[in-house]
Amino acid sequence: MEKQEFDKLNVFGLGQPNDAFAKYFSGQSYINMLAKTDNGIGFMNVTFEPGCRNNWHIHKSKSGGGQVLICTAGYGYYQEDGKEVQKLSPGDIVVIPANVKHWHGARPDSWFSHIAVEIPGEETKNVWLESVSNEEYRKLIK
Asked: Per CATH, which fold does 3-140 belong to?
């Protein structure tokens, strides 16, 4: 999906370059903070340029926790460690349990956005791991 077409569909906006977490992404990503509840649940639109993906990571939690992705524009991927890659399209929802190693990002030929929602839990933290190399990415998306 070309950028001009994507921008028309990306109703939550591109946001700002995700410089604070750039070291955990292959390619350029953007963040647009949408809302935060009184109990700390944040809703952010994350946009990935074509081929951009985040590193393997885990949303650690003693209890509760995890993340929900609500796909809003473009096309992407999600993968849990040891499982097949899932293709993502607008309207797809991914519920990521706490303590599960995974990655997500755009297809090589499309921009991709999702709303990320962090689920509250006890002693939560993100643990960033190794990148999804270009070679691994090409093999995974066949």
From this structure: Jelly Rolls (2.60.120)
